[in-house]
Each structure stands twice: as structure tokens, then as C-alpha cells.
Amino acid sequence: MSPALPGHLVPMHCHSSGEEFDTQGSGLARVNPDLASERLTASFCVPSLTAVLDGGAERTRVRRAVVDVIESDPVFSRENQYFQSQNERYEAAVRKAVHLRKKMQDMGWSEDGPESVYIYRALSGDVAFLLHRVFMRSISVLGSDKQVAKWIPLATEHRLIGSYAQTELGHGTYLQGLETTAVFDISTQEFILNTPTISAMKWWPGDMGRSATHTVVFAQLYIHGKCYGVHPFIVQIRSLQDHSPCPGVIAGDIGPKMNFEHIDNGYLMLKNVRIPRENMLNKFCEVQPDGTYIRHGSQQINYFTMTSLRISLIADEVILPLMKACTIAIRYSVVRRQSKLKPGEEEAKILDYQTQQEKLLPQLAAAYAFHFINNYLHELFNKGYKEIQGRNFALLPELHALSSGFKAMISQYCTSGVDICLRACGGHGYSLLSGLPSLYTKILASCIYEGENTILLLQTARFLIKCFTAARAGQPVPPSVTYLAAMKPRKCPAKDKLDFLSPDIYTEAYQHAAIRLISSTAAKLQDLIQSGAERHEAWNQCTVQLVQAAKAHCHYITVKNFVETVEKLENTAGIQNIMKHLCDLFALHGIFSNAGIFLHDGYITGAQMDMVTASYLDLLGIIRKDAVPLVDAFDFTDKNLNSALGSYDGQVYQRLYEWAQKAPTNKQISPAYEKYLKPLLHNKLSKL
Amino acid sequence: MSPALPGHLVPMHCHSSGEEFDTQGSGLARVNPDLASERLTASFCVPSLTAVLDGGAERTRVRRAVVDVIESDPVFSRENQYFQSQNERYEAAVRKAVHLRKKMQDMGWSEDGPESVYIYRALSGDVAFLLHRVFMRSISVLGSDKQVAKWIPLATEHRLIGSYAQTELGHGTYLQGLETTAVFDISTQEFILNTPTISAMKWWPGDMGRSATHTVVFAQLYIHGKCYGVHPFIVQIRSLQDHSPCPGVIAGDIGPKMNFEHIDNGYLMLKNVRIPRENMLNKFCEVQPDGTYIRHGSQQINYFTMTSLRISLIADEVILPLMKACTIAIRYSVVRRQSKLKPGEEEAKILDYQTQQEKLLPQLAAAYAFHFINNYLHELFNKGYKEIQGRNFALLPELHALSSGFKAMISQYCTSGVDICLRACGGHGYSLLSGLPSLYTKILASCIYEGENTILLLQTARFLIKCFTAARAGQPVPPSVTYLAAMKPRKCPAKDKLDFLSPDIYTEAYQHAAIRLISSTAAKLQDLIQSGAERHEAWNQCTVQLVQAAKAHCHYITVKNFVETVEKLENTAGIQNIMKHLCDLFALHGIFSNAGIFLHDGYITGAQMDMVTASYLDLLGIIRKDAVPLVDAFDFTDKNLNSALGSYDGQVYQRLYEWAQKAPTNKQISPAYEKYLKPLLHNKLSKL
């Protein structure tokens, strides 16, 4: 079968290297022979797998077209990104955002067209005004028709830049605790906004530090001295004439972060800032001129907005970075040769060491597993959205629980996966030029934003405990948790290591483990309460185990979904076979790495765990052969990877050297020489 | 008992905050009341524990004196570090290095005086010329008396700056594979050095990118066309008149890295660079004028140098960063309040949530465990050094195995611990101003440098397998592995959860697990070889399990040493009690988190694992009460922590706000406004 390299991936800017010592580069596009040879023996057709991942060849075509347009425009270049300061990154990101609007108009791409999902991806997220979009979305969802009609056109045309000011210095996850106040003044028909304490300062909102002219501020609404809880208000914070802060507004940038240098995360203090009554977003609740507070319709849709946000970030912010890290680390690991496997032979490719396979290949399998579970979550979400449009909110609790748990579980898993890829590349992985450090420092944030992971897992756990109790009482439960009602066999039936390549065997094991953890924690909770503990204290004493249970549930659903996805694949082009191997690897890696969970009640015995280990290690050797084609199928361009180690041609050392020469540290003689070194070193003799 | 706050820790530069909204600061040193209250209930005397950690009150005094001198000198300030570019960091580090030499002269501190160990620590490693010191050490160890007499005085006086060029672009861990050549030219009595391929370029050496005038180059020695292996040569790379590269030398900086911005890690290419015959370091081997190659004495001392380097970095580069991260995260976790534990009550300190305790307190226990194992390793090393001076090399294999395994195990554990601390601080942990991101990005490198961890663990495993075979054959083995000879009971005797607070019970469990993993892997290796696999291939197929076995061994020794240390402590000032709790926590956390290893053969049953879990979770609540005093005892100054979240006074929000205002992003109007935003936003009306 032909590995059929996608034409647009062949980089034209790379240089020959090989035996000859050539620091100038010949301009030839030559693939490192160690990498090239990996592509000759693929057991499956790479473009076919790419099409499966994209959801069809037509979408592959659209994606590549978007990528081509973005990457051929120098404004969107990320070439010198690793050398830029926070100020430079911000300036470039604003330039890109402004240019992007023009580009989309020129290309006829609309916000909801087929191209839209690929634009941000092609930019690697390196663009400003993302919170401006959240500003717009919040007005669309929470604003009245009149508010939408006033603000959305202005925002669309970039005649104002918006932000979304929810988080405060002292409050993130616990929204009820927000301290900013909005007091209604009947006499002037205005709200008076204030930041009453330092911890009430808005802190972290993107686009707010330097760009935004407006923002949606979440504040405690007071009317006649009575608090009505947190509500959203549109507040102008900077002048449209000269961008200076509005009266009573103190705003700025929160300074350097581990990544997101291109975003001006900001702070905001408000001192008696007055806004008209019309600036409270009032689709769901309204303050009338006489101070009467009225609530319209359901607020459950807000709940759904959070859910949709969590699901929407998983693909681009979490799974793609892991796919990129795998691509970089696996390509590098067949170019890098170090030490000898067999005395007297050539040095070995490091991917031929079992320990290196054991680091990287499970991450590769996880990237596929999460890609497929993400599809599952999106389907579920779309179904839920239709129901909600028909005013049926029955799916919400399950959707909320799944979106919370999966956002947490996948972001934690993928963050750890990127970290493993980085370390597996040794010293060169530690260079920013490898692309791995910035992937890591960025994906790490996904464990924290849009709900801190532990809190999210506990929300899932609360749902699971509730469903478990209901299921055991014979009451109906949502589809994803019906398994909790089942009473299953108490022992794994596997007899030899090949049995563990049976999806039924390992899926049952995951299901059993999830049920055991949920039921034993439910029992502990019950015991504590029956022994007299207060409910909240009993809950707190179970939270370590509740987190374990929620993870086990998500892990189980992921394995089950991978199995079902593989079953549905057609076995043309060798796709189903290789996906089956990856599915097995993902499942057995999970059992191998969390052995205690499966051994605890003897469901899997020690002898069976040895079989798991044997099958798991065997799979590493099998998938090793297809490792490079499996990352090629992700179809990242060199520009998108932006990695000296991970390029398609594998000219690792040449590229590291070329890129290093462009570093600012090589562009100037450091003042340190004249000031500190010369007085010590200077010698009439140049040589000792 | 009085918690007796060490006076020099009370910061004089902090500001009041509290209820009143005060952005100016009153200049009063007021400790956040939530943090202050934590210090009133300590179960032990903090200064006494500090003295234990320092190895005596006198050493505490010396350490604090060094810290005071360094921190009161503005040249050594790290105040704006988080805002500086790579160029600025480098310049500051060179300035500090030059100033430090003068300071040490002024203070009468010698390189081997009692102060020396604390200087680098007080600087937080933020200083240049560390590789200059390795350059000097390598000449001292590998050079003849004549070479030492020539080069050491020049280097000591900073009349040259040295570096140490071993690693190449294509070779790190596998030194035999180095490609740089040094060919002896009899006619001129010179060595001709060359970089024959791009992968042969020296890459990574510190101080080489911009500072060094000289370096020790490791190259394959050729005489009359015959290769004699890798040897060290002193090579001048830059002019002493104007710092320009010497003829045939191409050198520069390798560009941005994940951390170490202050260090000019460099690259070096050599094209027919000639150096005199006298520049080969020739204490152990020499090339005579006629080309005769002579080897003197033993080279085993080199082996010892690597060992000593690995042990020496553990304290400052690995354990201290974890201690700092714990200090920051734990202090922040009693200041930060979020959500409610009990309905109707005040929001809870986040350290009162079980999940937060379970993240942070095991890291705290690990910091203590590793502090004590580091003492053990140093004692062993000092003993070994004495033996070696007496030409007895018998201890070397054990020392090598221990230093490799512990460097790997501790660096991996502590890196993961710092990561956990960072994430446990939520969004604010992600700000560079928290100090946590730079601790993480720096400690991560310790998993890679001085031997990549997986390779080091496999070296330990090789030693263990050898000793296991010897022990089972009744042959003598080194002291740390005599336990491998023992045949132990096959079941853990614990009957209830309190039994797991018995050090005998858990130490036995660790010992049993280590023996099982080593013996089962030895058996698998044997099986594979007997089934006809070649030795090297059989080894490769066992490496995943060998790594597990090596870690289990190091974990066991760490637990055993913690237990023995606690037993030796006097129980005055409540020290022994609290250390016993930490020791229990460290041990039970390890069993809880690696349950599979202990459950595998039924040594610990599922029911017993539930007892472990119960005791483990109980301990969290006990240690929670002393968490703040336990980090106070590490005795870091605010300047040393350099963290807006971790200062002694707990004025977290105030400090975040003050520091953010100093960021360069707030010091200029971005050109982005004039260029990109103004054309869009400008409006005759300043307000919408």
C-alpha cells in the first residue's frame, strides 16, 4: 500500500544535511533517510486515516485550503515567535486579529461557515480578541433583542473591542462569591459599579489589559439595599477618542504568565462608575425604572453555555496539542540515534528502545482515543442543543456531568502526555525551538481555566452518586450511566494474554472498576452520615475517592467509545486493524498504569495482570512499526508545528542550528562584554 | 509552645490590606490574619526544626548571615526577574558572577569555607560562570600538576572564562559516540581539532554561547590514524583582546530555552583548530612527542566525578525547589478562601478541602523525606571519597548505582511535586509572579541533565539484577542491597488501619515490593535468554519493568532512611512526633498511589489497602494543622521565594497587584494601539 504523502506537506524550505557537513544548506527538500524509511512500511493508507479523522475527504480539502491561505500570508507567520517579548507577541496578535477580519471578508469566510473551525487552528490560537468573541456571545445569549441590535454590529465591525470580566482576584470558580457591586440609583436611572475590596478587582480577563474599550462585568445587583445576586452589565472602560481609561476606571495588564504572552489578560477596578439602566443584559431578568426586579423565563440556558464552552475547547486546546507533541517526539525519536542496542551495530534509533516506546506510544493511542470521544461529546451536545431549543432540559444534568468530567480528565491526561513527549526528547525537547515547551505551558492552563479540574470532577462525581443511588433503587437514569444498575460477574474471565486483546474483556474490566469505585464511595458516604457526620463534612471526607471514581467513569466511557468507533470503521486501507491495535494499547496502558484499581477486589488477579503487561508490551512493538505514519495522518504542516525537531523532513540538527542563529542572543554583542567581561579579560595578547 | 518566628523573616516591605481597600499600602508589616492564625497552633517549635534541617543551630546562623549579605546587596536583586528578556537575564547574571568574586574576597569567604554551600542557594542559582567552575574542576581533576599550575590561577582571577564542551548536537548520554576529532600532528606537535559533521557540533555547554574564552573540548583522539577514544583538550575559542572568535572557531548561543535564560548555553564548531600538545589534559594519559600514547594510573576517578556531581545537585536543584513550591502553595492555600464547606458559613480556606490536602501535604512529606535521604547519600559519598583517596575502589559500583537511581527518582518525584503545587494554586499559580512557573521550568531540566533519568534508572537496575543474582547465590553484596538475600513472609500482617502507622509494617511492604519486582524481572530476563533471545534483546524487552524495579528500590531505601532518621531524633520541641507523622504520610501516600505494586501478589490485600487509605486520609487531617509551621521551618526569605503568593505575610492579592503594575506591559502604550486599534476605534464621541 502506498503511504501517499500529502503533497502540501513536503516542505520546500528545508536543507540537505546527511553525511556531508553543510551549514549553508542546498535548498533541496530531502527527507532524512531514517525518517523516510519509516514511511515505506506503513500497514495502512495515511490519507485514508486523515480523512477518517477529519470526518470525510471533503472536510480535509476545506481544512487544507484554510491552512494554505493562512500560512501563505506573512502577517500570520509564527516564524520568530520563540524570540519575541510579551509586548511583541501582543502587538503581533492584535495585528493578526485585525487582519483576520479583513481576510475573512476577502475570502468570503463567514463566522459559521465550514472554514471557521479551521481558522483558529491554522493560527495555532496565536491571535487576539478571543474574549471579544466571548463578549459578543454573552450579549447574544444574555441580551435582549434591543441590546443585540445595538451592540453586536458595533462589535462585529471592531468599532469597539469587548472583554468578559467575570473572574476576580479573590474568586474564580465560586461565582456566588463575586464581590463587585452594581447598585441601582433610581434618581438617575443608572447602576453604580464598585470594586469594594482589593480581592474584588477583576483579574485575568483576556483582551482587557490593553485592548478592550468595553466589557461585560459580572456584579452583585443591589436594589433598595437588597442583593439580587450576580448579573451581567456592559461597561465602557476606555475612551473611543484616545483609549484613556474612563472616569473611575483603573485597568491594566496582569503581567507575565507561563504562556499566553500574546493575550493582554487584565485587571479592572471600578470606582463609582455609572452606566445607564439599559446596560444590564436583560433577556432573563430586568430592573424596571421604579426598581422592580423581574425575572423572565429560564436561566438554565446559562448552564448550557458553560457546558458548550467546555466541550468546544477540548479539540483545539487539549487534543491538538497532544497530537502535535506526539508528532514532534515520534519523528524526532526515529531520527535521533543514541547508544547501541546490539554491541557492534550502528547506534539505534531511540524509538527502538522499549522504554521510549512506552513513553510515547500510549500518548499516541490516547490522542486517537480522545479524538473519538470528542466526536461523541459533540454528537451528544448537538442532540442536547436541539432538545433545549424545544424547551426540553432533561439532558442537561448528564451533559453538564460529562462535559465537566471529560474536560478535566482529558486536559489532565493530555497535559501529562505533552510533558512526557517533551521529556522523551531529552535536552533538545527543552529548547523552545523544539516547540514542546510552549505546547506544555499552554496546555497546562487548560487544567485550570473554564473550571478547575478537581472541582469539575467532583461535579461529575455528584452526578454519579446520585445516579448510582437512583439506579440501585430501580429508578431510570441517563443513558451514559445505565451501567451502574448492572450486577456484573466478579472475576475477569481472561485465561491468557491474548484474551486481553478482546475488547469485551477489557471494557468489562473498566466498567467493573468504575462501578466498584462509585459504589464503595457511595457506601463510605452513607456510613459517615449514618455515624453522625454532617452531610457536607462526610462529602469532604470522601472527595479524594470521589475524584478517583469520576475519573474511572470517564476512562471507562472513553474505552467503550473507542471500541465502538473501531467496530464501526470499515476495514479498507488497513484502518480498522491499526485502530484496533491503538484501542487495545489505550485500554491496556490504562490497566497497566492503574493496576491497583483493577487488582483491589481481585477482579483481575496478579497472574492476569502479568498477562495484561505482556500483551501491553507486545503491542508497543507492533505499533512502533506504524508510529510515524500514525502521526503523519494528523496532517500538521511544518509551519503549524513550528518545531525544529518535528518537521516532516526530519532535518533536526540542521534546523536547530539554523533557527538558533536567528536568536536575539546572537544578534547583539551583549553590553555585558564591555561592562563586566572586558575589564577582566582584556589582554594585549589575544591568545594564552 | 511558642512558634517563635525567626526575626529575619519578618518582611519590612509589605503592605496592609484586609478589609480596607488600600492600594497604596501603609508600609506596615501586617500578616494576613488567616495565615497568622495558622502559626499560633504549631505542635512543635519551628526554629528547632529549622536547626535539625540545617544540621545544627550554628549552621543556621552561618546560612542566615550569607543570605543577609547577599540579599542586602542590590546587585544580587531578583526583583524584576520575571519581566526580563533573555539578553537582560544574561547581562545580570554575568554582572552578578563578577561581583560575587569581589564580594567573596571582601567577606573573606573561601570556595571551601562553611559559607560556600549557601552562596549559590542565596542567589537562587541566578548567576553566570557555573560552567567556568566545571572547567576549573575538570582541570584540577584531569590535569597534570603543570597544567593545574598554569590554568587554575588564570581561571580563579577571571582572566579567562572557561566552559566544558562535552555534549554534542547528536550525542548526549552516549559519550563513546562523540564525533569531534583531535588528530595529533607530529610535525608541529599540535592537535588539530575538527567538527566533522553537523551533529558533531558541541551544543548546550553553559557559559559558551557568549562568555567563554576557553573550553575543555572532549574529542576522539587520533594518532597515526588510530583512534584512542574520547579525551579532554583545552581549546581557546575567543580572543582575549576583543573577544572575537579564534580562527577556525564558530560559536554562538543556542537560543531560548524553557528556563535558564540567564545562561548562555552555546554551540561550537571547530575547523582545523590547532592547539599545542600540552593542552591535552594529561594526568591520566599522555601523548608523547613521538606520538606514543601512555596511560597513567586509574581512570575510575572520572567515574567518581560523575557520581559526585549527581549527588551534589540533588539538594539545590531538586529538593529546594520542591520546598519552595510547598511553601508558596501551602501559605497561599490558607489565605485563599473559596466556596463553602458548610452552607451558611464563611467561605473556607482551600487547604481545608481534602482534595487540596491530598495534593499538597504528600509533597511536603516528600520534601522532608528527600532532605533526609540526601543527607544519607552525602554521608555515603564522603565515606566513599575517603576510601578512594586510599585507592580502594570497592564502594564505587554501589555509589554509582545509588547516585544514578536517586538522582532520577528524586528529580522525577520533585518535578511532579512542583507541578502539583503550581496547579493547586489555580490561575494565580500560572502567573509568573507566583514564582511557581519558573520553579517548574527549571526543575524539569534536572530530569534531563547529568544523565537522562530513564538511562540512569536502568544503570541502577543493572546493578540490582547483578546483586540479586549474587545474593541468591550466597555471595556477598554491598550493604544497601543485602535485603535482596532475605526471604520474607509472604503476607502483610496488618490487622487494622492503625497497624499501618507502624514503620515496621510499611517498611516491610516496601521491601517486599522491591524484592518482588527485582526478582520477577530477573526471572523474565532469564526466561527470555533461555528461550533463545540474545542478551541485549532480552534486556531491552525487560526495560520497562527494570525501571519500575529500580524506582521501587529507591523508594524503599528512602522510606527506610526516613524511619531511621525519625528514630534517631530527640523528642524535644515536638519534632519527633511531627516527623513521625510526615514519615507515615510519605510511606502511605506511596502505597496508596502505587497500590498495584503492593496488591499484585496479595502481599497487601484489598481489605488492607482500604486500611492504608483510611490511615492515609486521616494523616492528611493531622498534618493539615501543622502545614504552615512545617513550611516556615524551611526558613526561606521572601526575597529567596520571590513569589507574590508565598510571602511570609500572606498579603497575596496586594502583592499580585503591586507587582503586576511594574510589568513592562504596563510601562508603554503598545504601538498596537496607534497602528491597528486606533484606525478601527477612533470616534469623535469618546463614549457609546
UniProtKB/TrEMBL annotation, chains A, B:
Compartments it resides in: Peroxisome
Cofactor(s) the protein requires to work: FAD
Keyword hit for NADP: no
Family named by the database record: Belongs to the acyl-CoA oxidase family.
Catalytic center residues: 450
Name of the gene this protein is made from: ACOX2
Domain Acyl-CoA oxidase C-terminal: start-end pairs: 503-681
Domain Acyl-CoA oxidase C-alpha1 stretches: 303-465
Protein name: Acyl-coenzyme A oxidase
Assigned keywords, A-Z: FAD, Fatty acid metabolism, Flavoprotein, Lipid metabolism, Oxidoreductase, Peroxisome, Phosphoprotein
GO biological process assignments: bile acid biosynthetic process; fatty acid beta-oxidation using acyl-CoA oxidase; lipid homeostasis; very long-chain fatty acid metabolic process
Binding site for FAD: 167, 206
Single annotated GO MF: FAD binding
Entry's Gene Ontology cellular component terms: cytosol; peroxisome
Domain (Acyl-coenzyme A oxidase N-terminal): residue spans on this chain: 48-160
Provenance organism: Coturnix japonica
UniProt keyword Oxidoreductase, yes or no: yes
